């Protein structure tokens, strides 16, 4: 029996069920984020701040537990930086939303520029224009997000996370449906 046969014989029913559940939950949560982008942006910023605080505390504990290996100062500084950065995001969430939006805008701007260059570099190959088009859209999105500040900070992260969750949910359901056909 091949690996492909085992996938189709043992996992499909449970796998299909979980893909459907995950897909529906992703679509619902993505839809909520699209409908309420400010709440989703604020939630993302607060979760990120909390993750930094918790991971920083864990790093501080680890640094002191492993202080005999000679890197206590560097590990403790890293943990402290994470705790302070997370605490700042939690204490001033609106400013944190602006910061995350700036990072996102710069990511789209630079990533789009790189995709544009890559697209033109692929010019003799079929479909090269799609890479360039994707790059142009990313640059445009980056410009819109950055030049729209501070207003875009209230919705950009939440909206984009929501759209991503919707596409993930659709992909999961499509995969579950493909498994059911086989």
Automatic annotation (TrEMBL):
Keywords, ordered alphabetically: Membrane, Transmembrane, Transmembrane helix
Record bears the keyword Transmembrane: yes
Taxonomic superkingdom: Bacteria
GO cellular component: plasma membrane
Keyword Transmembrane: yes
Transmembrane parts of this sequence: 18-40, 46-65, 72-92, 98-118, 130-149, 155-180
Identification of the protein by name: HdeD family acid-resistance protein
């Amino acid at each position: 029996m091949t690996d492909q046969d085992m996938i189709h014989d043992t996992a499909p029913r449970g796998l299909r069920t979980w893909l459907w559940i995950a897909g529906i939950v992703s679509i619902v949560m993505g839809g909520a984020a699209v409908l309420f982008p400010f709440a989703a942006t604020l939630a993302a910023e607060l979760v990120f701040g909390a993750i930094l605080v918790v991971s920083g505390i864990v790093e501080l504990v680890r640094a002191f537990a492993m202080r005999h290996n000679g890197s206590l100062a560097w590990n403790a500084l890293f943990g402290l930086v994470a705790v302070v950065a997370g605490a700042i995001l939690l204490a001033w969430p609106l400013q944190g939303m602006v910061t995350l939006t700036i990072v996102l805008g710069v990511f789209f701007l630079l990533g789009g520029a790189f995709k544009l260059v890559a697209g033109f570099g692929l010019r003799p190959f079929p479909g090269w224009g799609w890479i360039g088009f994707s790059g142009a859209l990313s640059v445009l999105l980056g410009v819109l997000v950055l030049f729209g500040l501070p207003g875009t900070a209230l919705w950009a992260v939440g909206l984009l996370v929501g759209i991503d969750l919707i596409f993930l949910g659709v992909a999961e359901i499509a995969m579950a449906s493909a498994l059911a056909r086989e």
